[in-house]
Design brief:
Blueprint (H helix, E strand, L loop, with lengths): L3 E6 L1 H4 L9 H8 L4 E6 L5 H8 L4 E5 L3 E2 L4 E7 L14 E7 L2 E7 L5 E5 L6 E2 L4 E5 H4 L5 E4 L19 H16 L3 E5 L11 H16 L3 E2 L7 H11 L7 H8 L16 H17 L5
């Protein structure tokens, strides 16, 4: 099903850094039209959190007395990954519809530390194993579509579980799990390269360069290079698309020569202003054109 694209990621995917309608989600929707675009970016999430929301990586839950009652809610007593984390705040309020041990229902966080699972349809009380899989519908029902995957911004060289710094293994593992989930579901994955943060010369550049090289090698035709700095042609196209003109400064050109995104396109140390976000969306569009998905 190539009529829609689901964009999984963190705050960069969500469009943080600028205001409506000058953000990545809106630009992408315009550039891939008439294909529909659904944004599933949540700020602050690491690769394992995004992969668990999408369904490529198992999200495991335990409930009180290891039993889903015949009706009503049951307390979730343990979880493998915090899929409710937003902008670094754990267990924010929200919900995910899906199945727990094969039983349809809703996994909910009340925002105050309380977690529950409520089955959709009443039935018999069911005993389940500790840490049974919860499969989110948002991922399982859309894995046959185009899945844009952008993970690693918040942990390019950091282990998701131990917090150890200096390894890109985790990002590759969780990204590959998402890609495999889409491919086995009949969909098309698009893997975005990880962009390092400003300023020029930080250690993050090394982590991102290593991670992108692995992404290119592993994902091949599914990989979109977000790591390389923008060209003058891309900026000119963005100027037209955004409706305002930005010109590279002397400092920008220094950054570009160093293989970095220019500092003038950043809203802060992580997120892009509108011209940078347009260029990201433009690269996705052009990749889909190269694959023959859109014209």
């Amino acid at each position: 099903d190539i009529t829609s694209i689901y964009a999984w990621g963190d705050s960069r995917t969500a469009g943080a850094g600028d205001s409506l309608p000058y953000r990545f989600p809106e630009f992408l929707a315009t550039l891939v039209s008439p294909m529909t675009s659904v944004n599933k970016g949540i700020g602050g999430q690491t690769s394992i959190m995004i992969a668990a929301r999408q369904g490529g990586w198992p999200l495991l839950l335990s409930v009180t007395s290891d039993t889903i009652p015949a009706s009503g809610a049951v307390t979730v007593t343990a979880y493998s990954t915090d899929v409710f984390n937003s902008s670094g705040t754990p267990l924010t309020a929200g919900s995910h519809v899906g199945t727990l041990a094969g039983i349809a229902g809703t996994y909910t966080s009340d925002g105050a530390g309380g977690l529950t699972f409520t089955r959709t349809t009443a039935g018999s009380a069911t005993v389940i194993k500790k840490y049974s899989p919860f499969i989110p519908d948002a991922g399982s029902t859309n894995r046959n579509k185009i899945n844009f995957i952008c993970v690693g911004t918040n942990n390019a060289g950091t282990d998701n579980i131990t917090g150890a710094v200096g390894s890109t293994y985790d990002n590759v593992r969780y990204c590959k799990a998402m890609v495999d989930y889409v491919l086995t579901g009949g969909g098309l994955p698009i893997v975005a390269g990880v962009i390092d943060n400003v300023p020029t010369g930080t250690a993050n550049t090394v982590d991102c360069a290593a991670l992108n090289n692995q992404y290119k090698s592993i994902f091949g035709r599914y990989y979109v290079d977000f790591f390389r700095p923008p060209t003058a042609e891309e900026l000119a196209t963005a100027n037209t698309g955004v409706g305002s003109t930005y010109t590279f400064t002397a400092n920008d050109n220094i950054d570009i020569a160093a293989g970095k995104w220019p500092r003038g396109l950043y809203a802060d140390s992580v997120h892009f202003l509108r011209h940078g976000q347009y260029i990201q969306a433009l690269r996705v569009q052009r990749h889909l054109i190269r694959l023959g998905i859109i014209t």
